[in-house]
């Protein structure tokens, strides 16, 4: 047997045995009818060719025919094909009579390939011929699909795609060596065991000199994908026009549409829906007739490649309308809309926006982006367009954050109607939350607006990193004036934080912050800084209540970059209040809801720094070291985020005994803070850390100057917790009982529980043993309540024992 014959007939032993026996008995004068049943690609034509070859060798007269595009659309096409081989023009029953008479003179084989693609008249004629064949030495053998029996009572020979053994045999035949099991299985899986695909893939592997081993699996997959795409094109081109049209409907609609709606969309005229589906199933392109979808490996782009773009868009539009009318799943309708041209219908944009929200909630931002981009092609009002742009930018933050930032910046720089004011404020919040300080400053300094939100937007400029260092008066940036005392809540939050940072007028800071929180400000960023300002004047309850509202509001508005910033700020305040578990939970939630890689590099370290500080307070020093190391210096920017991380690293170095490193990091914090004229210890207590580190390093004179200056600035600010912290710094460096005693007094009834615990321990350290015991006991009780391992260890070090 030739190589081709071996390739064609591998794993077909049982089928060939039945067919060979049929040809043997036909040669002896006995009739039969057989159906070779299998989907395209199972080698059914090769098996039929083998039967014809056996018949010819046995001296049997053979007539052959085949179904095809013309036969499917025509009437009685196979009869013409068969009778033309006898130079006869008979049709219908006359043709059957002629063949019966021919069989009386000697055995006759009528072999018809692709009978599943014949027209109804030809199928009926073949059935009639098989019924008459029992009277004479005639065999009727047809190739058909399992779903379309042709000859009543015929013997069925079923062909299936090749399994592992058959594929392995082909590999051995093609390469002259046995293939690895992984190679054989990958070949079977990616070709579906279909012979035409198998042969082409093996031929190309041989051409490229690839051996059938696991080392070439990637190349095999690429070749198989190319081959299947080419076969898809070839098969689609061979289909009748209406069957090809139905296939394109299935490719576009997937499995979302019921069969009857698919038929409506396909607009079949010449062919029945069931018949066209049978053709597609038989061609190996569609899974089944009940719930049709493309078979695995069928390339959608190849199915649609010859469909004009206008036709494709029109089909998608019709399918989307029909799907919407029939209440199909919104996601399926949205998928169709993304392929359609603008419809201008009122239901389109709300549906796309709703699906985009669901996709984002399900962690599929790319699908949400497609929906929102499609929505922006529809005619909408300026307000809806602004909302769509914001939603698109937010979705892009999860996939291409830089693109989202630029979209937000363009939105703020474009002049828009007054009704878009709140959307523009939300865009500014999202841009601030993402953390690209340079882009934020450039954008906010050049914002133009016809609406009433200009001042509120540009006020954020003054809390963008490094903005106060620049000098707008010299024309470097065209920024708004820094907000002062005002009744506008969107300006009040920024003004309050300015007071805090500069350490002046705590009463005004409290008043401004309350305006921003209680009114409340439309700008969530302004409200966040108002909440921090309240914490800086020791109003922890109001700060937490305000932050709770901001977190909820940011989630409601779906401002994904604002949420982690709000959670971080709430964690900071919770640490002040001694609720370390809640603070840790907020930080974990911030990182899970908005991964670090989605934040701008300038902003990433701030979340890590928060986790470092919480870990230190809980006594998890090794974890703090690991977190700190996760942010190399070359990965981070140069703004507040870096400064806050340096502060956390200074605290960590102090805890681990590296005084020199603690001094260096604290000094770096100081340089940045002072360059902005942020002198208030309530904004960041870097001097306290620096003083302790300097004292540990032996520079007692500078340590004393640092802590004295810290106390001076804290008293000027006036908040009890800030002043108490400065007294504790002085106590550690200068010594004596006065400073810790004053710290304990200032913190009586304070919400800053851990700070009070440390003050109690500082006082216990210098107090008489009898007076120290109740101080240690209270400090330990606070440590247990707050789950602060660091404070608990310090209390034990001073002599406290559980139960004492």
Would you kindly provide a written description of the structure presented here, covering whatever features stand out?
This protein has 804 residues and is mainly alpha-helical. It contains 41 helices and five strands. It has a five-stranded parallel β-sheet, sandwiched between helices. Helix 7 (120-133) links the parallel strand 3 (108-113) and strand 4 (138-144). Helix 33 (640-655) packs parallel to helix 35. The termini are far apart.
Task: Give the helix level as a range of percent.
Answer: 55-70%
Count of extended strands: 5
Strand portion, in percent? under 5%
* Principal-axis shape: elongated
Brief rundown of the structure:
With 804 residues, the protein is mainly α.
Can you tag this structure with a few keywords?
disordered N terminus, 804 residues, mainly alpha, 64% helix
Lay out the secondary structure.
Blueprint: H1 3-9, H2 13-27, E1 32-37, H3 44-57, E2 61-66, H4 69-73, H5 77-84, H6 92-104, E3 108-113, H7 120-133, E4 138-144, E5 155-158, H8 164-175, H9 181-191, H10 195-207, H11 217-238, H12 241-253, H13 259-266, H14 273-282, H15 300-304, H16 309-325, H17 330-337, H18 348-361, H19 365-375, H20 382-396, H21 401-413, H22 421-434, H23 437-444, H24 454-459, H25 489-502, H26 506-518, H27 524-536, H28 540-556, H29 562-577, H30 580-593, H31 604-617, H32 621-629, H33 640-655, H34 659-675, H35 686-696, H36 700-717, H37 720-733, H38 738-746, H39 753-766, H40 769-786, H41 789-797
